[in-house]
């Protein structure tokens, strides 16, 4: 089944109607998630699965309104090691000669310059969907043919291949120039990305190190580039290149925010069972046209949605390790600013210097 997907810059897309309820906890300063379980998921990507996921947003927990954290530590803004000498580097060329794809001109050393002309509205045509999605659509059609209500679905719309090239529907492209963290927070290669953190706390953490959360459009452009790629590295879905399509594990116990979870044996054990993150930068082919890593899969990333009001300024983008959409344009908009989940993290952006 081929499909046409039209995306606008502020459109919100929810891949699910089954958010799981969690436990709200006291707000505490976020810490690097590499300490989460004491174990590191095995390197390598997951495989396709027919198991039904909860959504691109996954499990969530609503914390009391207004709950926040003190400014986070600046340790997350550290530097990262470059690829080994002689290793082929995916993505854009190493402009600065520092061993990383892309350029950091006008940005801190741990960030990547994202500059060019952005298309707010695009048309992306899916050539092949995942079998799970095709079966789900066929079931809906059969019900509709019988005059029955199709009902809602928990199956994410996973496209295996898009038609190239993507079409820009906007009359005019918008120039953009900003800095994006090279990796997911704590932005240190080899560490596990942060999780169990709310949009509110992620925003404060970025601001504490002189940065800010990326906007929805900034994430889109950093992920897809001027070519408007559906996936950060092309038109074909490939779980060997990005941490996506791993089997869904149903949450059995409520989770707390990260620090409180680490002090609660049952919460910590449940997180260890659910956790399928990879250390950031583990998959060198999961890199955008600008040199930003892991924008698809691994962990959902909080972004800011300009023009929205509390509690709807929050959005999640990029997908996580599970069998969800996991591409550049879709935004999950039903997770509120004080929600948090085991697959929700973030990265920071910043205005680039002239």
UniProtKB/TrEMBL annotation:
Residue spans crossing the bilayer: none
Domain of life: Bacteria
Ranges for domain Sulfatase-modifying factor enzyme-like: 132-349
Compositionally biased region (Low complexity): 33-88
Coiled coil: none
Gene3D superfamilies on file: paralog of FGE (formylglycine-generating enzyme)
Pfam families: FGE-sulfatase
InterPro entries xrefs: CTDL_fold, Sulfatase_Mod_Factor_Kinase, SUMF_dom, SUMF_sf
MF term (GO), any: formylglycine-generating oxidase activity
Region (Disordered): 15-103
PANTHER family tied to this protein: FORMYLGLYCINE-GENERATING ENZYME, SULFATASE MODIFYING FACTOR 1, 2
Name of the protein: Branched-chain acyl-CoA dehydrogenase
């Amino acid at each position: 089944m081929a499909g046409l997907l039209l995306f606008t810059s502020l459109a919100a897309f929810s891949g699910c109607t089954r958010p799981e309820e969690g436990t709200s906890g006291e707000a505490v300063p976020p810490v690097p998630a590499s300490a989460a379980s004491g174990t590191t998921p095995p390197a390598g990507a997951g495989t396709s699965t027919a198991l039904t996921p909860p959504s691109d947003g996954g499990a969530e927990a609503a914390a009391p309104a207004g709950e926040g954290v003190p400014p986070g530590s600046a340790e997350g803004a550290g530097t990262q090691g470059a690829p080994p000498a002689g290793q082929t580097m995916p993505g854009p060329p190493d402009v600065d000669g520092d061993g990383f794809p892309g350029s950091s001109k006008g940005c801190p050393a741990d960030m990547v310059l994202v500059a060019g002309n952005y298309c707010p509205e695009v048309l992306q045509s899916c050539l092949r969907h995942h079998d799970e999605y095709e079966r789900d659509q066929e079931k809906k059609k059969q019900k509709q043919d019988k005059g029955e209500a199709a009902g809602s679905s928990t199956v994410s719309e996973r496209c295996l291949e898009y038609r190239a090239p993507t079409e820009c529907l906007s009359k005019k492209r918008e120039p953009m120039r900003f800095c994006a963290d090279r990796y997911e927070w704590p932005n240190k290669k080899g560490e596990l990305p942060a999780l169990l953190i709310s949009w509110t706390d992620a925003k404060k953490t970025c601001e504490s190190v002189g940065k800010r959360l990326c906007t929805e459009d900034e994430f889109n452009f950093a992920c897809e580039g001027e070519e408007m790629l559906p996936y950060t590295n092309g038109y074909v879905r490939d779980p060997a290149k990005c941490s996506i399509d791993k089997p869904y594990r149903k949450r059995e116990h409520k989770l707390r925010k990260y620090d409180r979870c680490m002090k609660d044996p049952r919460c910590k054990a449940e997180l260890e069972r659910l956790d399928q993150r990879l250390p950031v930068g583990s998959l060198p082919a999961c890199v955008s046209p600008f040199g930003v890593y892991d924008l698809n899969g691994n962990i959902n990333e909080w972004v800011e949605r300009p023009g929205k009001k509390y509690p709807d300024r929050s959005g999640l983008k990029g997908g996580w390790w599970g069998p969800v959409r996991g591409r550049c344009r879709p935004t999950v908009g039903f997770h509120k600013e004080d929600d948090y989940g085991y697959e929700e993290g973030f990265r920071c952006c910043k205005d680039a210097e002239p």
